């Protein structure tokens, strides 16, 4: 009996389409440029190169004079213009700032942070930025932050590293640094030490939830909006973890706010403004009419504080120690610069701990951190929406509705921007010829702390924390990456290490 025509043709089509895509992939897989697949656009290219995503984008930008376009499936509004041309960056982030907001799609990608300073545009963004700038520059807050950082290093990090040096076994220093930074962040934001810096503590659910949301955000950037929204509704794929992660963060922040409300505020003389929550807790705009329950916006705002103050430092420090561990010459330079400071620094059991204030003028240490951030920026990609058609300094046209992506990771590896040794870790590139001061590098060339009106408000706090930790580790310990350990990048909007950083440490012993 003959089969109906449809039963013969449809299976053939189902088989031929994957075969066609496979042949096209085989022919183009060695090509430097993303294949423009039928229907799917660049999505197969993204999937095929997910394990080396940032380096692949870097190679493409290097071969296309810093600019190229990429498209997703038709009708999905996935129209991207990628650039790491410093002149374009200055134009987009500063000169024509109003034409390049974050945009509604960006806000939806970071759903839990929607409406906060991280995703807001226009007047809402300006008002929030003014308030946060006022809060983060208060002298008492900065003083408390410095003391908290110094105490956590002295009483937590150094003793832990000393025990690991005595044991002589490999351990994940990224996890240890993550716990340290989480403690410092919660102390700064809520005024309480969660004491997670302990090898006996289980994994931190709040930090794990924050990581999960950043990984999901990367996935959402890379696929059509309809795709991830359907997956979210069905709770499949990366989206299945979103609800649980958001619930953990909301519960944690709400609990901290209620704890403070129950404890009351100190009113005898001066306000105890030594944490960020102190500047919001008495504002009726952030609570219900009865003044008992925090508004949803307040919860989101403090989740934003947690992300903004924890993620950049937590992501950057492991890369800093990785670069120091693999470049002993730089460690020697850092120690040499620390010698005059050591005579004034406090010590216990032969270990030296530095006050952030003692380190602020050290140019080589700062250069070592900047150089690590150049190669491994905490935020590897910046995203902007295009409101109106525009012509960039490079001569490229961008159109309303398109998305501009600035691969910050790639920008740090462009020969035309940083020179022929751009892939080398060389702090000296940041120093004047006599090594006495830092060279001026415009922020639109070094984007680790953003540039223009949206430049990072927490830069000074982040640098003080990183310098304190890096100086204490570099002076007191020799760090060696464990044999056979592969350092890989996690696919996230935050440039973390996929498999941690397994190291061995030993005490340096005698002073330099």
Considering the chains and any ligands shown, give keywords for the structure.
globular, alpha+beta, Cytochrome p450
SSE order and pairing:
Blueprint: H1 5-28, H2 43-48, H3 53-63, E1 67-71, E2 79-83, H4 86-95, H5 104-109, H6 122-136, H7 139-167, E3 171-172, H8 173-190, H9 205-222, H10 225-234, H11 242-263, H12 296-325, H13 328-342, E4 346-348, E5 351-353, H14 356-359, H15 363-375, E6 381-385, E7 390-391, E8 397-398, E9 403-407, H16 408-411, H17 415-418, H18 459-476, E10 477-481, E11 502-507
Helix pairs in contact: 7-8, 7-18, 8-12, 9-11, 11-12, 12-15, 12-18, 13-15
Explain this structure to me?
- This protein has 512 residues and is of the alpha+beta class.
- The protein has a single domain, classed as Orthogonal Bundle (Cytochrome p450), CATH 1.10.630.
- Helices cover 50% and strands 8% of the residues.
- The chain has 18 helices and 11 strands.
- It has helices at 5-28, 43-48, 53-63, 86-95, 104-109, 122-136, 139-167, 173-190, 205-222, 225-234, 242-263, 296-325, 328-342, 356-359, 363-375, 408-411, 415-418, 459-476; strands at 67-71, 79-83, 171-172, 346-348, 351-353, 381-385, 390-391, 397-398, 403-407, 477-481, 502-507.
- The strands form 4 sheets. Strands 1-2-9-6 form a 4-stranded mixed beta sheet. A 3-stranded antiparallel beta sheet has the order 3-11-10. Strands 4-5 form a two-stranded antiparallel ribbon.
- A hairpin with a 7-residue loop joins strand 1 (67-71) and strand 2.
- It is globular and about 65 Å long.
- Residues 1-30 and 266-271 have low confidence and may be disordered.
């Amino acid at each position: 009996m003959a089969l109906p025509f449809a039963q013969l043709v449809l299976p053939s089509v189902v088989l031929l389409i994957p075969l066609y895509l496979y042949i096209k992939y085989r022919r183009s897989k060695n090509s430097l440029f993303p294949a423009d697949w039928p229907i799917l656009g660049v999505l197969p290219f993204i999937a095929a190169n997910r394990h080396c995503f940032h380096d692949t984008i870097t190679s493409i930008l290097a071969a296309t004079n810093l600019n190229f376009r990429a498209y997703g499936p038709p009708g999905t509004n996935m129209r991207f213009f990628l650039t790491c041309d410093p002149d374009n960056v200055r134009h987009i982030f500063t000169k024509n700032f109003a034409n390049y907001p974050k945009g509604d799609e960006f806000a939806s990608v970071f759903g839990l942070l929607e409406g906060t300073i991280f995703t807001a545009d226009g007047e809402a963004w300006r008002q929030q930025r003014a308030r946060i700038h006022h809060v983060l520059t208060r002298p008492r807050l900065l003083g408390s932050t410095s003391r908290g950082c110094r105490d956590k290093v002295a009483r937590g990090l150094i003793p832990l590293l000393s025990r690991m040096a005595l044991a002589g076994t490999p351990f994940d220093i990224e996890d240890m640094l993550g716990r340290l930074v989480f403690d410092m962040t919660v102390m700064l934001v809520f005024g309480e030490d969660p004491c997670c810096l302990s090898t006996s503590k289980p994994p931190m659910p709040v930090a794990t939830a924050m990581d999960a949301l950043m990984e999901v955000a990367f996935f959402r950037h890379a696929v059509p909006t309809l795709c991830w929204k359907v997956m979210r509704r069905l709770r499949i794929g990366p989206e299945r973890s979103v609800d649980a992660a958001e619930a953990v963060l909301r519960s944690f922040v709400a609990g901290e706010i209620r704890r403070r409300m129950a404890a009351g505020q100190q009113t005898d003389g001066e306000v105890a403004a030594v944490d960020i929550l102190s500047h919001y807790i008495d504002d009726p705009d952030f609570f219900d009419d009865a003044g008992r329950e925090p508004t949803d916006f307040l919860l989101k705002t403090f989740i934003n504080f947690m992300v903004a103050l924890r993620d950049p430092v937590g992501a950057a420090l492991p890369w800093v120690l990785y670069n120091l561990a693999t470049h002993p010459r730089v460690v020697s330079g850092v120690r040499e610069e620390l010698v005059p400071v050591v005579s004034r620094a406090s010590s216990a059991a032969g270990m030296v701990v530095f006050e952030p204030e003692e380190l602020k003028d050290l140019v080589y240490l700062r250069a070592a951190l900047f150089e690590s951030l150049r190669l491994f920026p905490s935020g590897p990609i910046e995203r902007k929406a295009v409101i109106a058609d525009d012509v960039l300094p490079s001569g490229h046209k961008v159109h309303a509705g398109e998305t501009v992506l600035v691969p910050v990771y790639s920008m740090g590896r462009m020969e035309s921007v940083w020179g022929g040794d751009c892939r080398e870790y060389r702090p000296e590139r940041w120093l004047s010829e006599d090594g006495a001061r830092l060279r001026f590098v415009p922020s639109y060339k070094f984007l680790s702390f953003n540039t223009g009106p949206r430049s990072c408000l927490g830069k000074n706090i982040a640098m003080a924390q990183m310098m304190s930790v890096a100086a204490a580790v570099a002076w007191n310990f020799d760090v060696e990456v464990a044999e056979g350990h592969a350092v890989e990048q996690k696919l996230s909007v935050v440039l973390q290490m996929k498999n941690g950083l397994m190291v061995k440490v030993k005490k340096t012993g005698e002073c330099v």
